[in-house]
Amino acid sequence: MKKPKYFVGIDISSADFAVSVGTEPWKIVGKTATFDNHPDGYEALLAWLRQQGIQVKETVVCMEATGVYGEGLAYHLSAHEFRVAIEAPLKVKRAFMPYGHKNDRVDSRQIAEYSCRFYDELRFWQPREEILEQIKVLLSTREHFTRQKSMHRNALKALKRKIVATPFAENLHQQSIERIQKSIQQIDDEIQRLIDQDPKYRQLISLLTSIPCVGFLLATNILLIMETSPKDPTNYKQLAAYIGICPYEYQSGTSVFRPASDRHHGPGQVRKLLYLAALSARTHHPQFKHYFLRKKAEGKPGNLILNNIANKLLRIMCAVVRTQTPYIPNYRSVNPTLL
Fold first, then answer.
1. How far is C-alpha 213 from the geometric centre of its chain's CA atoms?
2. Distances (CA, A) of 12 to 46, 87, 130, 246, 278
3. pTM of the full predicted structure?
């Protein structure tokens, strides 16, 4: 793809956003402008770009991932056919030496320069389907409620161990637990309703839940990752690296050495669900139970074996989605050269 002529860097805050424009060979074009972070400000930005003679087809817009602060602007620019890249703030920060002033104007210029220097590494953003965005929000809300329920349970457990009982406080915690549990069930029902109304996603969930120890919640999280991944969604190695269960080597020379371990990057909720699925497989599935005991007898650490089981489950999930075939319990892989 031909490199664009203009690189627009946007530094976003809650109330407004600063915009700088640069071109290659790198230099800033014009002065940095500031616009209000609401629809009127989005339209003012488009008008300002037109006044600068900046055309959509020869422009790349780059901004940092700031959650809901930049969401409206990203949707607006995408609707007007701009190529939008949303980069992690840490990646932009590490591209520059930490000296000089730190303000919105400087940050927007650095983001624009970053998009020019690392254009070949930019991953362009696309809005999710409405149903996927709703499922993502519901899963996030469910996780918040689950943590609240755990907090109330722990507090209730501590109160019941006190010598002087306080029934009123205990009842409040118990009522909160029951209320949160009811809300979680309502969220699960709503997610199921959204999936049932889409034949494609209903089929994918059916394929994933055909795998032993893979429940509806894990399948839904994996579905969301696969459907929003910019790369091959069924590439097992890429997916394992993204989730954060891929062990990485750590050594340098002869003095620096650590056992291979994962980086704990990526969505923590999915890692937790995969770990729980691995625990269930170790206990209830004969094949995985035999694998765990065999590796344990070889002296392998338990956590390492569970991580291997999680990787195996993920590999099976990618296979059933790629082949569109439900899990076959007695499946055996055969080397074609032996036939």
1. 22
2. 16, 12, 24, 33, 41
3. 0.84
Handedness of CA 317, 273, 217, 288 (dihedral sign): positive
Backbone angles phi, psi at 189, to 5 degrees: -65, -40
**Number of neighbouring beta carbons within 10 Å of residue 182:** 11
Tell me the three state secondary structure of residue 256: strand
Pairing of strands 6-12, 16-23: antiparallel
What is the structure's pLDDT at 1?
Answer: 58
Instruction: Put residue 302 in one of left, alpha, beta given phi > 0 → left and psi -120 to 50 → alpha.
Output: alpha
Dihedral class, residue 3 (left if φ above 0, else alpha if ψ from -120 to 50, else beta): beta
| Pair 145, 184: CB distance under 8 Å | yes
CA dihedral defined by 101, 104, 109, 113, rounded to 10 degrees? 90
Query: Which amino acid, residue 309?
Result: I
- Mean of pLDDT values over 247-251: 77
- β-partners of residue 84 are 61
Neighbouring-strand partners of residue 83: 60
Give the residue carrying structure tokens 């339209």.
Answer: 43
Residues 319 and 129: their CA atoms lie apart, in Å, by 24
Provide the residue type at 254 as one letter: T
Tell me the mean pLDDT in the region 278-295: 94
